[in-house]
Amino acid sequence: MDLSAINPVLLIASLMVAATPLLFAAIGELVVEKSGVLNLGVEGMMIVGAVAGFATAVESGSPLLGFVAAAGAGAALSVLFAILTQYAQANQVASGLSLTLFGLGLSALMGQSYVGIKPPQMEKINIPGLSDLPVIGPILFGHDLMLYVAIAVIAAVWAVLKFSRIGLVLRAVGENHDAAHALGYKVVRIRILAILFGGACAGLGGAYISLIRVPQWTEGMTAGIGWIALALVVFASWKPWRVLLGAYLFGGVTVVQLNLQAAGVAIPVEYLAMSPYLITILVLVILSADKSSAPAALGRNFHAAR
Amino acid sequence: MKLTNLMTSAAVALGLATAALAEDPTKVGFVYVGPVGDGGWTYEHDQARKAVVEEFGDKVETVYVESVAEGPDAERVITQMALQGADLIFTTSFGYMDPTINVAAKFPDVKFEHATGYKNADNVSTYSARFYEGRAVQGTIAGHMTKSNVVGYIGSYPIPEVIRGINSAYIHAKKVNPDVEFKIVWAFTWFDPAKEADAAKVLIEQGADVILQHTDSTAPQAAAQAAGNVITFGQASDMAEYAPSPRVSSIIDNWAPYYIARTQAVMDGTWESKSTWDGIGAGMVGIGEITDAVPADVKEAALAIKASLADGSYHAFTGPLNKQDGSAWLAEGETADDGTLAGMNFYVEGIEGDIPQ
Fold first, then answer.
1. Which domain holds residue B110?
2. Does A269 touch chain B (CB under 8 A)?
3. Is residue B65 part of a domain?
4. Chain A residues in contact with B37 (beta carbon < 8 A)
5. Contacts of residue B223 in chain A, CB cutoff 8 Å?
6. I want to staple B197 with a disulfide (CB 3.0 to 4.6 A). Which of B112, B219, B236, B256 is the partner?
7. Residue B95 domain-assigned (yes or no)
8. Which residues from chain B sit within 8 angstroms of residue A250, using beta carbons?
9. Are residues B328 and B269 part of one domain?
10. pLDDT tens digits, B75-88
11. Is the pLDDT of residue A124 over 80?
């Protein structure tokens, strides 16, 4: 056992990278659920975002353009979900699940000619002076742009939900769509916009995996992160900062357990392997012991005539 | 008169139908653990499937199901394949062992081929490749090439096949570099690019400058490339897109000759249950081109090992070798028997850490 082999600075820096895809997907889903819609298609939108972002980055040579395309692709797929659930009044659980299955298949088809290709590298930001600081430099100032975008999205969602009129309307629609409708708010339109936002975020999360974290394209490469994002939203009791905490905790324990294994710590590997799930759930369950609960209209379809 | 005509045509039609039935192609099913585009293990199995199609053309019909989870779900998929009339089914992952045996008991007329397992039945053959021979070549290169004397190893599941690989690589790295140390991380997955990339990054952060992987995706190769100054080996497939560096060589699984031979045997009615375990010599294990990132003398040493493994003059597990706890395993000049290798559940002396139970 040699714990000195673990470099805490590198560890924190890499856990932030490991957590970012989860962060994107979860904050998008949080907004969707706040508007009263349950979209189980996160995994499908992520993987389509991953392949669309990858393909665009490879063809254009610009990772940034790749992320734009990924957000577009994720949102485009979520339009399908929006049409099914908001206009055709289809069951949200079934529609979401089929979106995931469809996304996995579609991405495999789209990605066939991109297997084994290397994407253009995303430059890490480099602030002279700050990025060279010991300890703080690599942790706070040595990452790629998208990692900061993810944190900014969390902050923005939090501020909008808490302080702005738009946030209030969104929450009203999610809590009681009949009352919101009676007040004259366009329930369906607001929900569609929320679904689009969720799709774009999931797409960004997927592209973060295929362009930065791994970086390459392989079929099924999101490997269940979308599902973890869904669980995270619930355990974070629909609060943006808890999503950040949960995602970093999950990413952190994942990286720490690999570090402990490599350092030869005598804890059975099975316990280490399950620890990210256990610890994240445990902490968030303890945190959610307060009164916060799910949006009251979550998963219920709205029709003006009823 | 009319009736006779009718009966004649009916008879002719019936005859045609039977003729068509006789022309019925041999149906071969494949169950894959990952997607065919994984660039590694499943990719190579699917290449072999395509080789079967090319060899037999219309006489064969192949079906495959990809990304089948090991366990109960596999049993459902295999059963479905057998019900759909498959004559021969290849189940291509260790975790399909019990499901394959269970389904085979229900379909005595269908032939089954299970990869890397050790349970046979009258209609279940097992086949595997001596990947550990390839690991011996990799270990030799790794031992020579490492400057930090730390070699990182990404394991999938703690099963004999993976442990054999770790031992073989370690023995041969140690032989050329007594100071070498192995850091082993278990990913508990065959295929999860994000997790594999994380594992590779962790190993590199902890000083490893050679990464060996027993997982199926090319993610560790990408991580090594991003880190620079780290070398890797292609796993199951050549992964040549990462050559000449970080990927300096590879183990390539070549299943095509075996799949063609077994399909032929089913067509001829000569198929019988057996266990096949071939290595470099028989061509089931290929060593991918050793790139120029490796110095000439190291390349020569690696090729010499490869040649001696191929012609059988050298066995990758040759004594004197002790087990991890220091107890004697093989005496001077003694070689390991296949039974011990097939069920290998211990590290050799010098490797640190425990095998997850």
1. 25-129+255-278
2. yes
3. yes
4. 108, 111-112, 115, 218-219
5. 214
6. B219
7. yes
8. none
9. no
10. 999 999 999 999 99
11. no
B226 and B332 fall within a common domain:
yes
Domain co-membership, B262 together with B323: no
Number of folded domains in chain A?
1
Residue of B nearest to A224 (CA): B192
With cut-offs at 50, 70 and 90, classify the pLDDT of residue B26.
very high
Q: Is residue A4 part of a domain?
A: no
Interface check A116 vs B, CB under 8 A: yes
Is A146 part of a structural domain of the chain? yes
Q: Check whether residue B210 and residue B259 sit in a common domain.
A: no
Residues B61 and B158 in one domain: no
Residue B145 contacts A, CB cutoff 8 Å: no
In chain B, the residue whose alpha carbon lies closest to the alpha carbon of A268 is B356
For the stretch A46-69, pLDDT in tens is 999 999 999 999 999 999 999 999
Are B164 and B247 in a shared domain? yes
- Identify which of B191, B217, B184, B204 has the alpha carbon closest to the alpha carbon of residue B352: B184
Q: List the domain range (segments joined by +) for residue A100.
A: 21-222
Q: Is B260 on the interface with A (CB under 8 A)?
A: no
B147 and B114 part of one domain: no
Write the burial class of residue A126 (CB in 10 Å: 0-12 exposed, 13-18 middle, 19+ buried): exposed
CATH code of B69's domain: 3.40.50.2300
Asked whether residue B175 is assigned to any structural domain, the reply reads: yes
Distance from CA of B338 to the nearest CA of A (A): 28
Total domains present in chain B: 2
The confidence score (pLDDT) of residue A269 equals 74
Confidence (pLDDT) at A281: 79
Q: How far apart are CA B242 and CA B260, in angstroms?
A: 30
Q: Identify the pLDDT of residue B310.
A: 92
The answer, for A5 touching chain B at a CB cutoff of 8 Å, is yes
Q: What is the pLDDT of residues A65-76, one digit of tens each?
A: 999 999 999 999
At residue A306, the pLDDT reads 66
In sequence order, what DSSP letters do the residues of B268-321 get, joined into one string? Answer: HT-----EEEE-TTTTSEEEEPP-TTS-HHHHHHHHHHHHHHHTTS--SSBSSE
Of B189, B219, B356, the CB nearest to A216: B219
pLDDT digits (tens, 9 = 90+) for B202-237: 999 888 999 999 998 888 998 888 888 899 998 888
Minimum distance, in Å, between the CA of residue B144 and any CA atom of chain A: 22
Model ipTM value: 0.74
Distance from CA of B217 to the nearest CA of A (A): 8
Q: Tell me whether residue B17 is in a domain.
A: no
Q: Minimal Cα distance from A259: which residue of B?
A: B202
User: Is residue A301 pLDDT above 60, yes or no?
Assistant: yes
Q: Do A18 and B67 touch (CB under 8 A)?
A: no
Is the model's pLDDT at B4 over the cut of 80? no
| Arithmetic mean of pLDDT over chain B | 88
Structure tokens at B261: 């031979």
Shared domain check, B86 and B43: yes
The predicted model gives B88-101 an average pLDDT of 94
Give the Cα separation of A263 and B152 in Å (integer): 11
User: Which stretches of B228-279 are DSSP H helices?
Assistant: 256-268
Cβ neighbours of A255 in B, within 8 Å:
198, 202
Residue in B closest to A252 by C-alpha: B198
